[in-house]
Design goal:
about 30% helix; three-stranded mixed sheet; single chain; alpha+beta; three-stranded antiparallel sheet; about 325 residues; 8 helices; elongated
Length: about 325
């Protein structure tokens, strides 16, 4: 630091000859600090006042030292305050305007409106109460050939399974369970396939460290066919979820909350038999056997329309059964 902080104007000052610091009016570095306990040891009684400059020169053992006021370098700051008195009614009105949640009208897109209309006019229930739905599609007639690609993916899958006995056993068990639960069926007459046919390649996500589901089989409807487009390119997604803010707000209204999971939820819903050729797969139980064609009979995860069909069917079930289960119906329709 430098002292003084600004150069002092000595034009009108009366200055004694014996100064401790002849350059006292010019900012300079501090050479030494002397403690307060030594102040009275170095100070002397005589002083010289310079009335025109406001300086006082006090004699010390080192010579005269100057003291006095200097101009401040801090800029002057100005503040203005305006106070407006508002009525309590105005304050409350503005408060509620800020806190009120405006709920704009929910507008469905053209695709969402089509999916909703398509579902309402095509879904049905069989004699057991199970729902049968149709997949909303667009331009599906442009779908190309996909069987060659699916066979190639199956060969790649078996190269991996042949190196991992644990994964192979779980994969075989999964496919057998699919058959046992009647969630897929064997294609007996391959030559009579529908012109609109898509073969879903599949692979496994194997995590042996898991305590529950060690293997998750993934059906993939996104690989392109010979036309360059995939099955998912021709499926419509529809409206799946409500606004997440509304769901979270309702969730936090209660002190306790429960969440549940429906086992094999998608697979509880059947696909209309007329569309099942869009959900063909190729599988063989052993590496050295010929592949067999199957049709998946239920809503299949990995297809773009599956979430809409599953959620919409759940809400439809809640609506139809509202008279029997009013509380469950309300919760399902709001928070599913």
């Amino acid at each position: 630091d430098f002292l003084p902080i600004v150069t002092y104007n000595l034009e009108n000052a009366t200055i004694p000859d014996n100064l401790a610091d002849p350059q006292f009016a010019t900012p300079g570095k501090i050479d030494i600090l002397i403690g307060a306990q030594s102040f009275f040891d170095i100070i002397k009684n005589d002083e010289i006042r310079s009335p025109n400059s406001g300086l006082v020169f006090r004699n010390t053992v080192f010579g005269y030292v100057a003291s006095g006021a200097v101009n401040s370098t801090t800029p002057v700051q100005y503040c203005g305050f305006i106070s407006q008195v508002q009525s309590i009614d105005d304050c409350l009105r503005k408060f509620w305007e800020v806190e009120t949640i405006n709920e704009p009208a929910k507008m469905l897109s053209e695709e969402e409106e089509f999916c909703e209309h398509h579902y309402k006019t095509t879904h049905k229930r069989d004699e057991t109460g199970r729902y049968i739905v149709q997949i909303p599609v667009n331009g599906i007639e442009k779908l190309g050939e996909s069987k060659t690609m699916a066979i190639k993916r199956l060969d790649q899958l078996w190269k991996r399974l042949s190196r991992d006995e644990a994964m192979k056993n779980l994969y075989q068990d999964f496919m057998q369970e699919y058959l046992d639960l009647d969630h897929m069926e064997k294609v007996n007459d391959v030559k009579s396939a529908s012109p609109l046919c898509y073969y879903l390649p599949h692979h496994g996500v194997f995590r042996p460290e898991k305590t529950t589901t060690k293997l998750r089989v993934v059906f993939n409807a996104s690989p392109p066919t010979t036309s360059g487009s995939s099955l998912n390119d021709h499926l419509l997604k529809g409206l799946v979820k409500e606004d997440i803010f509304e769901i979270m707000t309702r969730f936090r209204k209660h002190k306790f909350a429960f969440t549940t999971d429906i086992q094999k939820m998608y697979r509880q819903i059947h696909i209309d038999p007329a569309q099942r050729d869009l959900l063909r797969i190729i599988w063989k139980d052993r590496e050295d056997t010929d592949p067999t064609e199957f049709r998946l009979k239920t809503v299949t995860y990995g297809t773009a329309s599956a979430p809409f069909l599953a959620i919409r069917t759940l809400k439809q079930l809640a609506l139809v059964e509202s008279s029997r289960f009013p509380l469950a119906s309300d919760v399902t329709q709001q928070d599913a």
